Amino acid sequence: MTARIERLVTAGQFTLDGGTWDVENNVWIVGDDHEVIVIDAAHDADAIAAAVGDRRLTAIVCTHAHNDHIDAAPALADATGAVIWLHPDDLPLWKRTHPDRDPDAHLLDGQVIEGAGVDLTVLHTPGHAPGAVSLYDPGLGVVFTGDTLFQGGPGATGRSYSHFPTIIDSIRDRLLTLPPETKVLTGHGDSTTVGAEAPHLQEWIARGH
Questions:
Q1: Residues of the chain below pLDDT 70
Q2: Is 94 left (phi over 0), alpha (psi -120 to 50) or beta?
């Protein structure tokens, strides 16, 4: 059965470096009629569980550990038995939100998360956060970029644990090398494609933020 991709938008707050912002997050549910994977369990475990329905949730994959992308992960995992995956470089950020609960498994660059009719290749794309990852499925022609690449440019790098030259390297070397028709499914806002963003790399570098 062909996998499909569903988007659920949840609302909550992002908190870092003493500031708090109201945000809306994209929660991606990928799979078929029987089994799914959730990418970024943001804000509302009940809403995500309702969207999953009676399908088996096998994995909760975190693109990075800013609180607005992981705040609902433990509750969703406890309710469903799903495994929480996070790149180990983001454990310091994870601990700020969930000091008493570790992720269940560590993401590694190049590993493939299989299941629910998908093959998600983990691309370590640091910059927005040290352990930020993107998830590429060539069969579906999509890459889930979290907050690394958006429609219109890179994710923010003005706060702790982030670094602008690093995110540029990640985007140039890991994302813009994907086929231009690859759909870019982001952590917030609208989707784009690799081909639509690639021509603007030098503009972003010139802006320098």
A1: 1, 209
A2: alpha
